[in-house]
Amino acid sequence: MATPSRLDLVRSIDALLPQTQCRRCSYEACEPYAAAIADGDAINRCPPGGDALIAALASLTGRPAVPLDSSHGEHTPLAVARIDEAWCIGCTLCLDACPVDAIVGAAKRMHCVLPALCTGCELCLPPCPVDCIDMVPAGRAWSPADARAASERYAARNLRESARRKVSGEDGGPVDPPARPTKSEAIAAALARARARRAAAHRTR
Known about the structure:
- The mean pLDDT is 89.
- By secondary structure, the chain is mainly alpha-helical.
- Helix 1 packs across helix 2.
- The chain starts with 5 loop residues before the first helix and ends with a helix.
- The chain folds into two domains: 6-72, Orthogonal Bundle (3-methyladenine DNA Glycosylase II, Chain A, domain 3); 77-144 and 180-205, 2-Layer Sandwich (Alpha-Beta Plaits), CATH 3.30.70.20.
- The chain has helices spanning 6-16, 30-38, 50-61, 93-97, 144-168, 183-203, and strands at 79-83, 103-104, 112-113, 133-137.
């Protein structure tokens, strides 16, 4: 029986991974981690996959199943991001951070997470300047169908971003990034919006 090629092995491993693109394994996405596993890296660095994934990877690779490496996080029920729209200032930083286009919105407009598309990766949390994003229980398990759909959205986003960089000339060398509000500016804007809402509510009484 022919030995599968490295590419075939990477694809088989990647197909088992949850495609949350959360980077908790210390790789940029699921596929790079799959390639690393094919090259001998540990099979127990994916908290979203947990013990079930480790068992599947052990069976595929012929390696022993080992406990999840807790230095990369714990396996927990699926949680999805939720934006407090009362505090969202429309900075678009979370849109830029989401690897699967699960957040919709526009600059200076309220953003909203589509919970059915959210992978629970938490990558939107650190860039939010006003801490208006929370993780809440999804009330469901992450399924293989979810993983396939997330992988497709991730690939589509990467293609779109690659085309955008090519059109903008960013592939030709370093360019100045678009201006973003500082954390203090974002907080000041959020507080101003809150004061304006309170003032409007007071006038209608």
